[in-house]
Amino acid sequence: TSAMYNLETFHSFLKSPNCKTILALVGAGLSASSGLSTFRGSGGLWKKYNAIDLATPDAFLDDPGLVWQFYAYRRHRALIASPNPGHYALSALSTSTEINFLTITQNVDGLSQRSNHEPSKLLEFHGSLFGLRCTNFSCSYQEKNNYDDPLCDALEVDKFQDLDQLPYVEEKDLPHCPACQEGLLRPAVVWFGESLPLQMIDKADEFIVRNTVDLILVIGTSRVVWPAASYVDIVRNQGGKVAIFNTESDEYDDDCWEFIGDSAETLPQALE
Ligand code: BJW
């Protein structure tokens, strides 16, 4: 990273008339200091299972009980967690009247919402842990804000909290659709290989095309999952600046501000 990129130059760019439109791209690292695990790296394991392997349609077909235990555990953890100063710093930007702002969060934990982020400026790109939908193709049942914990007896977190060996949960004991009475419910999140809701992509594209983004804040994300990661290059190609907030340095990217450390600390500092 060149001498041009330091906290001082970041602050003066942020306050300059050249910085009118800001896009925040958020990943699991933003919620790390709220106590929630990331997907990749040291925090990326749940019991002996790899989080990435469980977030797939195949895993759910193969063993819906196991995948539901993973999501029930994460629902519980998210509900007892609180937003951290990083969430609040973004929330403050979202209510500013001076700038055009949008947060694209890949997180499904609901912590940005709970930090009072302006809802119209927040896209939950990969869905929400607190959304449910029916897996029966002929049924369109969905629930948006279901905070029941546990969702059902078999998914009571105490039953698999400290176990090396998880109890096997049969499909009949998992949450089923109250509308069609037969479909298994699933979390309304976007798994690998699944398409993001089209209107989500549309809204993101609309923001980028309408405004021309001056600055993208890339916060706590490994930038490997598409299409979310693609916005960094899209903004750069528009002539926008990039600021990365991560505990690890990206050796391959030196045309950006890089704030190394816990984003719960670095983000409020940079945005103050
Ligand atoms: C800290 C910190 C602290 C730690 N402070 N920092 C084009 C090219 C290549 C591949 C594809 C492509 N198009 C599609 C694909 C395939 C696939 C993909 O991207 N694969 C790549 C992995 C190669 N993409 C998809 O399948 C997407 N669908 C799609 O594109 O559909 C198109 C389609 C069209 C037609 C037919 C079919 C499909 C969907 C992707 C959905 C991703 N879903 C998940 C699960 C969501 C539900 C859940 O939460 O369980 O989303 S996977 C997982 O990864 C989750 C996350 O949101 C996502 C991103 O992870 P994130 O947030 O970056 O976390 P980590 O753990 O990776 O990184 C944490 C970072 O924080 C690290 O950098 C740490 O250093 C840092 N950190 N502590 C600051 N305190």
From TrEMBL:
Family: Belongs to the sirtuin family. Class I subfamily.
This protein's record includes keyword Zinc: yes
Annotated ranges, domain Deacetylase sirtuin-type: 1-272
Matches recorded under Gene3D superfamilies: SIR2/SIRT2 'Small Domain, TPP-binding domain
Active site, per annotation: 126
Binding residue positions for Zn(2+): 134, 139, 177, 180
InterPro entries per the UniProt record, alphabetical: DHS-like_NAD/FAD-binding_dom (IPR029035), NAD-dep_sirtuin_deacylases (IPR050134), Sirtuin (IPR003000), Sirtuin_cat_small_dom_sf (IPR026591), Sirtuin_class_III (IPR027546), Ssirtuin_cat_dom (IPR026590)
Cross-referenced Pfam families: SIR2
A GO term, aspect molecular function: metal ion binding
Annotated GO CC locations: nucleus
Annotated keywords: Metal-binding, NAD, Transferase, Zinc
Protein name, per record: Deacetylase sirtuin-type domain-containing protein
Organism taxonomic ancestry: Eukaryota, Fungi, Dikarya, Ascomycota, Saccharomycotina
SUPFAM superfamilies, A to Z: DHS-like NAD/FAD-binding domain
